[in-house]
Fold:
Amino acid sequence: MMSAEGAVRARAIELLARDDTLTAMVHEIFDGTPPRTSAPYVAVGTADGVDWGTKDRVGREIRLTLTLVGVGSGIDDKAAARVEAVVTTLRGPAGGWSVVGARAIRTRFAFARDGGWRHEIVVRCRCLVG
Structure:
């Protein structure tokens, strides 16, 4: 069985890559920050986990960072909305774990020095073994 952090990351990458609407708006979905690529793209970043178990079940709460990177002065709200829509589908089986809750708990938007922008979405996933 893989770690809950790895299972949530793998599930997020799979679901984001399967979303045809999102993949039509970005160049690619990356596991981590790509070394060289052109925007727009989505990067699945860090996954921090803490204990979220019960008396009789092992559990983890995972905070996963999804980053949509774009170019230009315009904000692509449609792509960000698609990423947030995929977040709602994270519930379900994932690498020996069961994601029992998933929701965006924080978003952050910032313009970059190079003329691009970043839209970060932090997702809280609560997982139980099995």
In short: The mean pLDDT is 93. The first strand starts at residue 29 and ends at 31. DSSP finds three helices and six strands in the chain. The beta strands are 29-31, 41-51, 59-70, 92-94, 97-111, 117-129.
